[in-house]
Batch of 4 targets.
Target 1
Amino acid sequence: MLKTYGLIFPDGTKYLSSVVLDDEGNPRIDTIRPYPVPEDWVDPTLVELIKADPPGPETEWESYLEWFPDKVEVHWKQIS
């Protein structure tokens, strides 16, 4: 099973990535490491992705991400 997480690397780089979950539903960080693992590799911090649906169908919406130290949230803004 896969789940999308925010990945925050030590240099401040941020990505969304699908991460494999183990049998108990915990993320397997080893599944996002490059192979072979570079000597200077540092695992990113995994943060929860908080999804939200667009506010309504009456207009067009564009999603954007807001990053926090412990989560990443999907927000919506109206396209004018």
Target 2
Amino acid sequence: MRNLTEATSLLSELWFDDAWTGLREDSPYKTHTDGSVHYTAEAQELYNHIENQVEEILIGYFAEEKSDA
């Protein structure tokens, strides 16, 4: 399960970066007064959507690969 979580996170970050730069010219990050940096609400929503799709794809792939073994 840990490998699935790590793969989902890594792929989501890569696909998010591509999707955001393809759609927008502004930064997806917001810097807070304490110096912390987080996604804007809109960027977080897009990231969550991508992450859900990536997870579904990977679960389907691993399930198919397991059934072929």
Target 3
Amino acid sequence: MALFKRNVAKKGLSINQGLRQQIRGLESQEIDPGITQANQEAQMMKDRGLSSSAIGLFKQQSDRAQSAAFSQLQGRRSALAGAASIVEGANTAGLKLADLENEARQQNMMAARSSAVGLGQQKMGLQKYKQEGLFNYYLGRKQARQAQINSILNAGVMLGSAALGKPPKSSATTG
């Protein structure tokens, strides 16, 4: 009987140790730092538009186009007639730059929102995974305790039957 109790205790101890290792593994899991960092970067970029170098390049190209247009105008008449179209071209370029800037801001805002949603989904998924793991841990402990109780009860039935001199009825034959 003592040998049986030791075997049951060892089996229960090894099951509990395995379950505790699973819990430690669950508790140590975190979201990938790269995902968190990417979200932080997206949040910092959400209010930004075009980079200063892109704006500078756009303005430089616009200025070159104006200079080329002025150099093609020779004489007072053509200069007066063409000046209006050059000014209109400069205004159009300014509006186009503002549109590009606004579009870049909107894209950055959408990327930041998408990143935040993705991070939120990752956090919820990890939390759900941990909760399921804890549930499985406690369910496993309950099953291990039930197995120990069943083993002890079976041993008691066997000992009682042996003391009375009757063979025990197995649970497989009854029913």
Target 4
Amino acid sequence: MSSRILHLTSDVEVRLMPTTTGVAISIFGEHDTDSHAVYPWEEMVNNLIDEHAIPVLRKDDFRVTPESQQFLMKIGNSMKARGQEILDKTEKLIVVVPD
């Protein structure tokens, strides 16, 4: 996955928020050093799979170990369940229409 190194020298607040295009990360410090970035879903998914995939004979031929496949499937199913949870809870909300 995409990774960044943080060197912390003071109290900071880190916020992670899913967006329609990826995961937004905001870091708020004590000084004027706020930082914001969005990690696109496609990049995160590709990086996650690349960390577990093993190139074999051709450029487009990748394999995974049974353990890696299980791990990736668990992550995919967990994300799917959380997505369904968002849909289910949102569907139950009362929509307020402004006058």
